[in-house]
Structure formats: C-alpha cells, structure tokens
Amino acid sequence: MARYGTPGLLRAAVAVAALLFAGVSARAADPLPVSEIAPGVFVYQAPFQLLAPDNKGAIANVGFVVGTEGVAVIDTGNTVEAGSRLLAAVRARTSLPIKYVINTHMHPDHALGDAAFRGTGAKFVAHAKFARALKARAESYVDAAKRQAGDGLAPKLEDIVLPDVEVADRATLELGGRSLELEAEPTAHTDNDLTIRDSATDTWFLGDLLFMGHLPSVDGSFEGWVKLMTKLRDRKAARVVPGHGPASAPWPAAMEPQQRYFDRLRSDVQALLDRGASLREASERAGLSEREAWALFDEFNARNAIEVYRQLEWE
C-alpha cells in the first residue's frame, strides 16, 4: 500500500463509481448528431449561432476519433450540457475508454464543455499557453454565458478544466491502430491554437484556424494568422474539419473563402489608413463587400476591422 492515498480496493470503487456516473450522465443527455466523416472519425456540425438557451451551447464543431484501444475527443462546446451531449454521442458509438479530451484553443464555444468529461478518466490536452489564456478570461466567459443562456445553462468557474498535458511544439497520442499528431501553432486566431491530424485517415482538425460560412473572428494576431494560413495551405490532407462550417471539407480549397475575406479586410483597412480614416470609420466601412458571404457578419466584422486597424497602423 502506498504511504499516502486511498487503499487499493477503495480506489477501485471510486473509479468504478465515477465511470458509472459518467455513463448515467451520458445516457441522460440527448446525443449530439454526429457524422462519420472518415472511418472512426465523427464530427458534430454546429449551427451558425451565438450561445442561447435553444442551442444549449453546441455552437462549434466538435468531434471524436475512435481507435482500437480508446477514444480522443476534440473540443466540447460552450456549456457542460453541450459536453454531456457529446459524451452521449461517444457512448452511442463505442464503449471504449475516453483516453483524451483535446482542446484546439481556449475560446468558450470550444472548451467550456470539458467538465462533462471529468468522470471518464480522460487526460485533458491543450497548447502550452492554453491554461494561462483560459484563466485570464474564465470569469468573463462565465459571466457572458450567464447573460446569453441564463444561470441554469451557463458553466460555473468550478467547471473550468485546465490541461493535464500541455503541448509546446509537437506531440503524438496513441489510440490503438491509429495515432493523433498534435502541433502547437504560432499566434494566429489565438495564441494557443492546436491542430490535430489523424494518421489513419489523414483527417486534419484545424479548430478556429479555419472558418467556413461563419465569419472568422480575430483574437490573436491578424498578420500572424495570414502567415500561418500560407504555411497550412502548403500542407496536404485528405480532408479538414473547420471550427465552424461543414463537418469536413476538401483541402486546400476549404481555405479560399477565408483567404478572400482576409485579403479584402486588409485591403480596405489599409486604404482607410492611407487616407487618415479613424478607427471608428474603419470599423463601419472595412470588409462590407463580404457581408452576404458570411453568417454572423454584423456580430464580428467590426471588431475584426478594429483589430486589423490597430495592427496595421503600427507597421
């Protein structure tokens, strides 16, 4: 017996109880509708919506990969309810243990459902800068969720889950018969973007480095994101999974609309800067020709223009 800790029999009983609780929670939740986009790779395609009671926080693409020995979950949604529905979707497909819960970045629509997986025995995996970034915004994320979805649905501060495994460069996770290749990317959409590639099917989860249909939101570095897009576009993949958009898409064609929007936004902001326009004018005028091409344009374009203006004025 170890000097410190619970005796073996009691430890086993606690572990079994946790797994049973997780199983009951999964059965009680309505499973997210997922599609098998490649053998053993499942994705929930989210609607283009902001957090609201009706969508219960399932507003970002999330998924899971099933190996012969275990499962890896990739992103979990904006609420514990969304995470529970994803857990139910996993359990509807396999009884294998969930080995990993991987976050592509710290934004609430991707990471605040993590608490639903606490009782599964999974290790939580994220970029090395994820914990710092999430802790810095946790309170504001919880407050925003309360305003948007109400106290009953919004996560609490104690629902914030920090990673057990941090990726500073690259890492490989084994699931049995297939491996996941993780790469920490430089500052782009955020400063903690992580990409995940399934070796068995060459499926590449890009998180919010790729938006399709839903307007991108700039939070990290616009110029960094543009540079990273060029780097990513040169890599091959059988298919990609965007953070928002279809469950999967061909690569690199999937990047073209986002590239067009970024090019237009940069060009418009630069032209406004060249003639001495104010920050407010840039937020009101830049990128408007793209409005009809994107959902949630009015919710995100002005703040994108502000970020681009601030970055370009110092060049």
TrEMBL record:
Residues 1-28 form the signal peptide. Keywords: Hydrolase, Signal. CDD domains: metallo-hydrolase-like_MBL-fold. GO terms for molecular function: hydrolase activity. GO terms for biological process: antibiotic catabolic process. Transmembrane segments: none annotated. InterPro entries: Metallo-B-lactamas, NDM-1-like, RibonucZ/Hydroxyglut_hydro, SoxH-rel_PQQ_2. Residues 59-244 form the Metallo-beta-lactamase domain. Pfam families: Lactamase_B (PF00753). Belongs to the metallo-beta-lactamase superfamily. Class-B beta-lactamase family. This is Quinoprotein relay system zinc metallohydrolase 2.
